[in-house]
Amino acid sequence: MTDVASLERRLAEHRTRIEGVLEALFHDRNEVSTRLEAAMRHGVLGGGKRLRPILVYVTGRALGAAPDALDAPAAAVELIHAYSLVHDDLPAMDDDDLRRGNPTVHKAFDDATAILAGDALQTLAFEVLARSSHPRLGALVRSLTEASGRDGMAAGQALDLNAVGAQPSVDALVEMHRHKTGALIRAAVRMGALTAVAETDARVAALDRYAAAIGLAFQIHDDILDITGDTATLGKTSGADAAREKPTYPALLGLDASRRKAKGLLDEALEALAPLGENGSPLAELARYMIERDH
Protein backbone atom coordinates (compact mmCIF):
# COMPACT_ATOMS: atom_id res chain seq x y z
CA MET A 1 0.00 0.00 0.00
CA THR A 2 1.26 3.48 -0.88
CA ASP A 3 2.29 5.71 2.03
CA VAL A 4 0.54 8.85 0.78
CA ALA A 5 2.32 11.23 3.16
CA SER A 6 5.71 9.82 2.21
CA LEU A 7 4.90 10.00 -1.49
CA GLU A 8 3.70 13.60 -1.23
CA ARG A 9 6.90 14.51 0.59
CA ARG A 10 9.08 12.97 -2.13
CA LEU A 11 7.05 14.64 -4.88
CA ALA A 12 7.44 17.97 -3.10
CA GLU A 13 11.21 17.46 -2.93
CA HIS A 14 11.38 16.81 -6.67
CA ARG A 15 9.17 19.84 -7.37
CA THR A 16 11.40 22.05 -5.22
CA ARG A 17 14.47 20.83 -7.08
CA ILE A 18 13.06 21.42 -10.58
CA GLU A 19 11.65 24.81 -9.54
CA GLY A 20 15.17 25.82 -8.52
CA VAL A 21 16.64 24.59 -11.81
CA LEU A 22 14.02 26.46 -13.83
CA GLU A 23 14.34 29.65 -11.77
CA ALA A 24 18.11 29.61 -12.35
CA LEU A 25 17.55 29.83 -16.11
CA PHE A 26 16.21 33.36 -15.62
CA HIS A 27 18.76 34.67 -13.11
CA ASP A 28 21.55 37.15 -13.87
CA ARG A 29 20.58 37.66 -17.49
CA ASN A 30 21.20 40.70 -19.65
CA GLU A 31 17.67 40.63 -21.05
CA VAL A 32 17.16 41.77 -24.64
CA SER A 33 13.38 42.01 -24.12
CA THR A 34 12.07 42.29 -20.58
CA ARG A 35 8.51 41.69 -21.83
CA LEU A 36 9.47 38.43 -23.53
CA GLU A 37 11.35 37.27 -20.43
CA ALA A 38 8.36 38.12 -18.25
CA ALA A 39 6.03 36.16 -20.52
CA MET A 40 8.39 33.17 -20.52
CA ARG A 41 8.57 33.25 -16.73
CA HIS A 42 4.78 33.46 -16.55
CA GLY A 43 4.50 30.42 -18.80
CA VAL A 44 6.97 28.16 -17.02
CA LEU A 45 7.23 29.37 -13.42
CA GLY A 46 3.52 29.67 -12.64
CA GLY A 47 3.26 26.41 -10.70
CA GLY A 48 1.93 23.08 -11.91
CA LYS A 49 2.29 19.41 -11.04
CA ARG A 50 5.77 19.17 -12.61
CA LEU A 51 4.87 15.57 -13.43
CA ARG A 52 7.19 15.20 -16.41
CA PRO A 53 10.38 16.33 -14.66
CA ILE A 54 9.37 14.21 -11.67
CA LEU A 55 9.20 11.22 -14.01
CA VAL A 56 12.72 12.05 -15.20
CA TYR A 57 14.02 12.20 -11.63
CA VAL A 58 12.21 9.11 -10.35
CA THR A 59 13.16 6.99 -13.37
CA GLY A 60 16.78 8.11 -13.36
CA ARG A 61 17.17 7.57 -9.63
CA ALA A 62 15.61 4.08 -9.94
CA LEU A 63 18.43 3.17 -12.33
CA GLY A 64 21.19 4.81 -10.32
CA ALA A 65 21.63 8.25 -11.90
CA ALA A 66 22.81 11.15 -9.75
CA PRO A 67 20.31 13.99 -9.26
CA ASP A 68 22.68 16.56 -10.81
CA ALA A 69 22.83 14.55 -14.03
CA LEU A 70 19.03 14.56 -14.24
CA ASP A 71 18.54 18.32 -13.88
CA ALA A 72 19.06 19.19 -17.56
CA PRO A 73 16.73 16.53 -19.04
CA ALA A 74 14.15 17.28 -16.34
CA ALA A 75 14.24 21.01 -17.15
CA ALA A 76 14.20 20.39 -20.91
CA VAL A 77 11.08 18.24 -20.82
CA GLU A 78 9.26 20.76 -18.61
CA LEU A 79 10.21 23.63 -20.90
CA ILE A 80 8.76 21.74 -23.86
CA HIS A 81 5.59 21.04 -21.87
CA ALA A 82 5.34 24.73 -20.88
CA TYR A 83 5.75 25.93 -24.45
CA SER A 84 3.04 23.53 -25.61
CA LEU A 85 0.61 24.86 -23.01
CA VAL A 86 1.32 28.49 -23.93
CA HIS A 87 0.53 27.73 -27.57
CA ASP A 88 -2.41 25.38 -26.85
CA ASP A 89 -4.09 28.11 -24.80
CA LEU A 90 -4.06 30.61 -27.69
CA PRO A 91 -7.36 31.68 -29.31
CA ALA A 92 -6.41 29.83 -32.51
CA MET A 93 -6.09 26.60 -30.51
CA ASP A 94 -8.03 25.89 -27.30
CA ASP A 95 -8.72 29.56 -26.44
CA ASP A 96 -8.25 29.16 -22.66
CA ASP A 97 -8.27 32.06 -20.21
CA LEU A 98 -6.98 30.19 -17.14
CA ARG A 99 -3.97 27.96 -16.55
CA ARG A 100 -2.75 26.75 -13.14
CA GLY A 101 -5.12 29.21 -11.51
CA ASN A 102 -3.60 32.19 -13.33
CA PRO A 103 -4.42 34.05 -16.55
CA THR A 104 -2.94 32.29 -19.57
CA VAL A 105 0.08 33.96 -21.17
CA HIS A 106 -1.87 35.52 -24.04
CA LYS A 107 -4.35 36.96 -21.50
CA ALA A 108 -1.64 38.28 -19.19
CA PHE A 109 0.30 39.75 -22.16
CA ASP A 110 -1.03 39.42 -25.72
CA ASP A 111 -1.29 36.81 -28.48
CA ALA A 112 1.92 37.77 -30.29
CA THR A 113 3.98 37.81 -27.11
CA ALA A 114 2.56 34.41 -26.14
CA ILE A 115 3.62 32.96 -29.49
CA LEU A 116 7.14 34.32 -29.06
CA ALA A 117 7.32 33.13 -25.44
CA GLY A 118 6.33 29.61 -26.51
CA ASP A 119 8.92 29.67 -29.30
CA ALA A 120 11.63 30.81 -26.90
CA LEU A 121 10.74 28.21 -24.25
CA GLN A 122 10.97 25.49 -26.89
CA THR A 123 14.42 26.51 -28.05
CA LEU A 124 15.58 27.02 -24.47
CA ALA A 125 14.80 23.35 -23.81
CA PHE A 126 17.36 22.24 -26.38
CA GLU A 127 19.87 24.86 -25.25
CA VAL A 128 19.67 23.41 -21.73
CA LEU A 129 20.27 19.89 -23.05
CA ALA A 130 23.12 20.99 -25.33
CA ARG A 131 24.92 22.67 -22.44
CA SER A 132 24.74 19.50 -20.33
CA SER A 133 27.39 17.62 -22.39
CA HIS A 134 25.94 14.25 -21.38
CA PRO A 135 27.70 11.24 -22.99
CA ARG A 136 24.36 10.13 -24.47
CA LEU A 137 23.33 13.65 -25.46
CA GLY A 138 22.32 12.57 -28.97
CA ALA A 139 19.92 9.97 -27.63
CA LEU A 140 18.43 12.47 -25.17
CA VAL A 141 17.89 15.11 -27.87
CA ARG A 142 16.41 12.53 -30.24
CA SER A 143 13.98 11.35 -27.57
CA LEU A 144 12.76 14.87 -26.93
CA THR A 145 12.54 15.95 -30.57
CA GLU A 146 10.63 12.82 -31.63
CA ALA A 147 8.18 13.29 -28.75
CA SER A 148 7.65 16.99 -29.47
CA GLY A 149 7.35 17.28 -33.22
CA ARG A 150 5.51 16.03 -36.27
CA ASP A 151 5.47 12.42 -35.07
CA GLY A 152 4.64 13.30 -31.46
CA MET A 153 2.97 16.07 -29.51
CA ALA A 154 2.45 18.49 -32.43
CA ALA A 155 0.80 15.74 -34.46
CA GLY A 156 -1.42 14.90 -31.51
CA GLN A 157 -2.55 18.51 -31.22
CA ALA A 158 -3.34 18.54 -34.94
CA LEU A 159 -5.45 15.40 -34.52
CA ASP A 160 -7.15 17.02 -31.53
CA LEU A 161 -8.07 20.13 -33.51
CA ASN A 162 -9.44 18.02 -36.35
CA ALA A 163 -11.59 16.01 -33.94
CA VAL A 164 -13.53 18.97 -32.51
CA GLY A 165 -17.24 18.41 -33.09
CA ALA A 166 -16.64 14.90 -34.43
CA GLN A 167 -17.28 11.45 -32.96
CA PRO A 168 -14.06 9.49 -33.47
CA SER A 169 -13.74 5.85 -32.53
CA VAL A 170 -12.10 4.89 -29.26
CA ASP A 171 -9.08 3.66 -31.25
CA ALA A 172 -8.76 7.05 -32.94
CA LEU A 173 -8.99 8.80 -29.56
CA VAL A 174 -6.26 6.53 -28.19
CA GLU A 175 -4.05 7.36 -31.19
CA MET A 176 -4.59 11.08 -30.67
CA HIS A 177 -3.71 11.02 -26.99
CA ARG A 178 -0.73 8.69 -27.37
CA HIS A 179 0.76 11.53 -29.39
CA LYS A 180 -0.63 14.67 -27.74
CA THR A 181 -0.10 13.65 -24.09
CA GLY A 182 1.59 10.27 -24.06
CA ALA A 183 4.59 11.07 -26.27
CA LEU A 184 6.10 13.61 -23.87
CA ILE A 185 5.43 11.42 -20.84
CA ARG A 186 7.22 8.56 -22.60
CA ALA A 187 10.10 10.91 -23.43
CA ALA A 188 10.38 11.97 -19.77
CA VAL A 189 10.71 8.35 -18.64
CA ARG A 190 13.09 7.48 -21.46
CA MET A 191 15.31 10.50 -20.83
CA GLY A 192 15.51 9.63 -17.14
CA ALA A 193 16.51 6.09 -18.07
CA LEU A 194 19.08 7.13 -20.69
CA THR A 195 20.76 9.44 -18.21
CA ALA A 196 21.64 6.28 -16.25
CA VAL A 197 21.96 3.42 -18.75
CA ALA A 198 22.45 2.72 -22.47
CA GLU A 199 19.55 2.37 -24.90
CA THR A 200 20.31 -1.35 -25.22
CA ASP A 201 19.58 -2.01 -21.52
CA ALA A 202 16.47 -4.23 -21.32
CA ARG A 203 15.03 -2.02 -18.59
CA VAL A 204 14.70 0.86 -21.07
CA ALA A 205 12.22 -1.15 -23.16
CA ALA A 206 10.32 -2.18 -20.01
CA LEU A 207 10.13 1.44 -18.92
CA ASP A 208 8.82 2.45 -22.34
CA ARG A 209 5.93 0.01 -21.88
CA TYR A 210 5.34 1.48 -18.43
CA ALA A 211 5.35 5.02 -19.80
CA ALA A 212 3.01 4.22 -22.69
CA ALA A 213 0.45 2.84 -20.23
CA ILE A 214 0.65 5.66 -17.70
CA GLY A 215 0.59 8.30 -20.43
CA LEU A 216 -2.77 7.10 -21.66
CA ALA A 217 -4.10 6.50 -18.14
CA PHE A 218 -3.11 10.06 -17.22
CA GLN A 219 -5.12 11.49 -20.13
CA ILE A 220 -8.17 9.37 -19.35
CA HIS A 221 -8.06 10.59 -15.75
CA ASP A 222 -7.68 14.17 -17.03
CA ASP A 223 -10.84 13.71 -19.10
CA ILE A 224 -12.64 12.38 -16.03
CA LEU A 225 -11.50 15.34 -13.92
CA ASP A 226 -12.78 17.76 -16.57
CA ILE A 227 -16.25 16.44 -15.70
CA THR A 228 -15.96 15.67 -12.00
CA GLY A 229 -13.53 18.39 -10.88
CA ASP A 230 -14.09 22.07 -10.15
CA THR A 231 -12.28 25.06 -11.57
CA ALA A 232 -10.69 26.12 -8.26
CA THR A 233 -9.12 22.69 -7.68
CA LEU A 234 -8.13 22.05 -11.30
CA GLY A 235 -6.60 25.49 -11.83
CA LYS A 236 -8.27 25.61 -15.26
CA THR A 237 -11.86 25.87 -16.42
CA SER A 238 -13.78 22.67 -15.69
CA GLY A 239 -16.13 21.36 -18.35
CA ALA A 240 -14.15 23.10 -21.07
CA ASP A 241 -13.80 19.98 -23.23
CA ALA A 242 -17.55 19.42 -23.39
CA ALA A 243 -18.16 23.11 -24.08
CA ARG A 244 -15.82 22.92 -27.09
CA GLU A 245 -17.32 19.63 -28.28
CA LYS A 246 -13.95 17.92 -27.92
CA PRO A 247 -14.06 14.10 -27.89
CA THR A 248 -13.12 12.55 -24.54
CA TYR A 249 -13.06 9.08 -23.03
CA PRO A 250 -16.09 9.69 -20.78
CA ALA A 251 -18.03 11.06 -23.77
CA LEU A 252 -17.33 7.89 -25.75
CA LEU A 253 -17.22 5.26 -22.98
CA GLY A 254 -19.00 6.80 -19.97
CA LEU A 255 -17.40 7.58 -16.61
CA ASP A 256 -17.43 4.06 -15.16
CA ALA A 257 -15.92 2.45 -18.26
CA SER A 258 -13.31 5.22 -18.42
CA ARG A 259 -12.31 4.56 -14.83
CA ARG A 260 -12.01 0.83 -15.58
CA LYS A 261 -9.87 1.60 -18.63
CA ALA A 262 -7.53 3.77 -16.56
CA LYS A 263 -7.26 1.03 -13.90
CA GLY A 264 -6.44 -1.56 -16.57
CA LEU A 265 -3.67 0.66 -17.92
CA LEU A 266 -2.33 1.11 -14.40
CA ASP A 267 -2.11 -2.67 -14.07
CA GLU A 268 -0.21 -2.83 -17.38
CA ALA A 269 2.23 -0.21 -16.14
CA LEU A 270 2.87 -2.04 -12.88
CA GLU A 271 3.49 -5.33 -14.72
CA ALA A 272 6.01 -3.62 -16.98
CA LEU A 273 8.09 -2.62 -13.95
CA ALA A 274 8.88 -6.24 -13.02
CA PRO A 275 12.47 -6.16 -14.46
CA LEU A 276 13.33 -3.32 -12.06
CA GLY A 277 12.44 -5.29 -8.94
CA GLU A 278 12.26 -3.21 -5.76
CA ASN A 279 13.88 -0.29 -7.57
CA GLY A 280 10.63 0.12 -9.48
CA SER A 281 8.57 0.82 -6.33
CA PRO A 282 8.78 4.64 -6.59
CA LEU A 283 7.60 4.44 -10.21
CA ALA A 284 4.71 2.21 -9.17
CA GLU A 285 3.68 4.72 -6.50
CA LEU A 286 3.87 7.54 -9.02
CA ALA A 287 1.69 5.63 -11.49
CA ARG A 288 -0.99 5.16 -8.83
CA TYR A 289 -0.81 8.84 -7.94
CA MET A 290 -1.38 9.79 -11.59
CA ILE A 291 -4.84 8.20 -11.69
CA GLU A 292 -5.85 9.14 -8.14
CA ARG A 293 -5.00 12.87 -8.20
CA ASP A 294 -7.72 15.53 -7.93
CA HIS A 295 -6.11 18.09 -10.26
UniProtKB/TrEMBL annotation:
Listed InterPro entries: Isoprenoid_synthase_dom_sf (IPR008949), Polyprenyl_synt (IPR000092), Polyprenyl_synt_CS (IPR033749), Prenyl_diphosphate_synthase (IPR053378)
Signal peptide coordinates: none
UniProt similarity note: Belongs to the FPP/GGPP synthase family.
Cofactor(s) this protein cannot do without: Mg(2+)
Keywords: Isoprene biosynthesis, Magnesium, Metal-binding, Transferase
Name assigned to this protein: Farnesyl-diphosphate synthase
Keyword Zinc-finger attributed: no
GO terms under cellular component: cytoplasm
Gene3D superfamilies per record: Farnesyl Diphosphate Synthase
Biological processes, Gene Ontology terms: phospholipid biosynthetic process; terpenoid biosynthetic process
GO MF entries: metal ion binding; prenyltransferase activity
